[in-house]
Prior knowledge:
alpha/beta; Rossmann fold; seven-stranded mixed sheet
Amino acid sequence: MRLRLAGVVLLAAAAYYIYLPLPSGVCEPWKLMLLDAVFRPTLLAVRLGLCHRIHLLNRLVCLVEDVDARSSATLQPKGGKKLKRAVLYYHGGGWALGSMRMTSYDYICRTLAEELDAVVMSVDYRLVPEAVFPDQYEDAMAAARAFLSEEVCQRYGIDPERTCVSGDSAGGNLAAAVSQGLALDDAQKVKFKIQALIYPVLQTLDFHTSSYQQNQAVPILHRHIMIRFWLQYLGGDSSLEPVLLANNHSALDEPAVTAAMRSRVSWTALLPPTGRGRRFEPLVQKTGTPGVVGRLPALTDVRAAPLLAESEVLSRTPKAYVMTCEFDVLRDDGLMYARRLRDAGIDVTNEHLVDGFHGCMVYSQLPMLSGVGQRSLASYARWLDQNL
Ligand SMILES: *[C@@H]1O[C@H](CO)[C@@H](O)[C@H](O)[C@H]1NC(C)=O
């Protein structure tokens, strides 16, 4: 009797721990709740600022993910002397977590290699806390230059005219920044043909876009976690978290944030006033916390925040695929970038997943298999096949 009672109490506690009110329309809410329950301790630790423990956290993520021990980063299709198409991939994880050796990323890259009969190179760039901006960006650039070099193309039989730079989340940020960096480098003769950005993180100025407001508490990427990831990447103090959360760093009395920069992240101007996500009011502070950008100039550095780039720069970047998810704080980052690329004359495909959540493509295989995750990977692979 007492045992049965204990069982009921335990069950109730587990249900209480796992249950989370989620917006209607999100794909398979119970799976998302379970995922959140698995990752909540990690996210809580990040929130508590245990960033010096981030190796531990990363080990936890990798444990859940069953990292495989292969060290080779290059996936090569078998057979044939014909030159291959090729994809350079940067994994996500807030510039702090994850690894190309995670089984989920390995699965994504293997799927691309097989379905496209392409060479896929996955990059293990340095992570927070050992590395902060611009280290991750510079690692990503170095990998891109090596990938496009004559030596590497010859060694792996890559067709230098048919290459793609790609990544998800923070990896999408790196892929966008690398596309811009190479576009501006006249000495770089071989360039990427296309860029494919999967729910990328792209801007630092507004943490009250409609998607940040709508999805601030939707797993697995809560708004305060994204802000914490930004501060750690840019080398900012965690005491700035409430300042950024209040949009005080980009208040109108901050001279380091120019009107031109504001216009590049203005979701009310760049996005159509329709859809469920657009019911929110913008938050623009008249007076904020003085000098934040002065103390942390990386906040307005285009290599960290590619959405802040001038249109002229965007116009020189490759043809683009931008995946966005409805239930993602970063949705509007991606939608604004797609719009600005298009305005700059770039051919853009925006795949918007109406039931998608941040990170869903990582869950495109068992045991975490998510329906929208599978669809996202299929859509991504299809676009690459048709455009690379
Ligand atoms: C934001 O700035 C205003 C005006 O300077 C200030 O009163 C408020 O305390 C600031 N909020 C935060 C969270 O720093």
